[in-house]
């Protein structure tokens, strides 16, 4: 039985990527995967978090979400990452976690993970594609297999047409401007389908 272990790994300050992660988890479960959601370790000082009401509120909401470790990566067959853009790049908290995977990388334990990424930004063209690609660059070094959504479903067009991964823009109040739920679910299903086929193939 090749049930896929899907880890959804996110960073979020104000909740957008937390929501994207929930939708990806929903899609993963619909596709039959065993799904776990993890956040990455926060590195911002508590005083900075507390100074932003939306950030403070979200930190409390996500208080019980487990923090990802490199060993959780080893256990997963597939991983969906979600993180906000920071000047057209992934949030430092996500990069910090990925930089801590050198040990498992050196042991070959990141090889053949099926991966995909999602993101958010404030502006419609605020760096979503570049952010996802910055994460995919690291994945090629992992020896991971990047499964982007491409234009494989109508939901990709409805969400704004980003073939690299589901992305959304948010207004000043943190409200999503595009309807991306179906795209996030589709992306996760596609990841699980590919991971399942790969797992079956590798098991022979
Ligand atoms: C330091 C910093 C840099 C940012 N850079 C950009 C940017 O280059 N383009 C953009 O559209 N939004 C930018 N944003 C807005 C965030 O991407 C947005 O707040 C985030 O996607 C919300 O996701 P979250 O609710 O999961 O934290 C930036 C925010 C911060 C704090």
Write the layout of secondary structure elements.
Elements: E1 5-10, H1 16-30, E2 34-39, H2 46-50, H3 53-61, H4 70-75, E3 78-86, E4 89-90, H5 92-99, H6 102-106, E5 114-121, H7 128-142, E6 145-146, H8 154-158, E7 167-169, H9 181-203
Parallel strand pairs: 1-2, 1-3, 3-5, 5-6, 5-7
Antiparallel strand pairs: 3-4
Helix pairs in contact: 1-9
Protein name: NAD(P)H:quinone oxidoreductase, type IV
Domain Flavodoxin-like: 6-192
Family: Belongs to the WrbA family.
Folded structure, characterized:
The model has no long low-confidence stretch (mean pLDDT 97). 44% of the residues are buried. Helix 1 packs across helix 9. Helices cover 45% and strands 18% of the residues. It has a single domain (5-203), classed as Flavodoxin domain (Rossmann fold). The protein is globular, with a radius of gyration of 16 Å. Strands 1, 2, 3, 4, 5, 6 and 7 form a seven-stranded mixed beta sheet that branches. The chain is an alpha/beta fold and 204 residues long. Bound molecules: flavin mononucleotide. Residues 12-17, 84-88, 120-123, 126-127, 170, 174 line the site of flavin mononucleotide. Flavin mononucleotide is lined by residues 12-17, 84-88, 120-123, 126-127, 170, 174.
């Amino acid at each position: 039985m090749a049930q896929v272990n899907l880890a959804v790994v996110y960073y979020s300050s104000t909740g957008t990527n937390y929501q994207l992660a929930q939708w990806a988890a929903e899609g993963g479960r619909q596709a039959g995967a065993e799904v776990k959601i993890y956040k990455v370790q926060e590195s911002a000082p508590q005083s900075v978090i507390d100074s932003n009401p939306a950030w403070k509120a979200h930190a409390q909401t996500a208080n019980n979400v487990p923090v990802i470790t490199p060993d959780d990566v080893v256990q997963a067959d597939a991983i969906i990452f979600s993180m906000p853009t920071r000047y057209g790049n992934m949030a430092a908290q996500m990069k910090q976690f990925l930089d801590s995977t050198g040990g498992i990388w050196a042991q070959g334990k990141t090889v053949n993970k099926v991966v995909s990424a999602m993101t958010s930004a404030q502006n419609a063209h605020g760096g979503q594609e570049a952010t996802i690609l910055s994460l995919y660059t690291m994945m090629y070094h992992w020896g991971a297999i990047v499964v982007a959504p491409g234009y494989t479903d109508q939901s990709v067009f409805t969400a704004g047409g980003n073939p690299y991964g589901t992305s959304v823009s948010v207004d000043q109040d943190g409200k999503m401007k595009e309807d991306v739920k179906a795209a996030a679910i589709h992306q996760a299903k596609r990841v699980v389908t590919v991971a399942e086929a790969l797992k079956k193939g590798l098991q022979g």
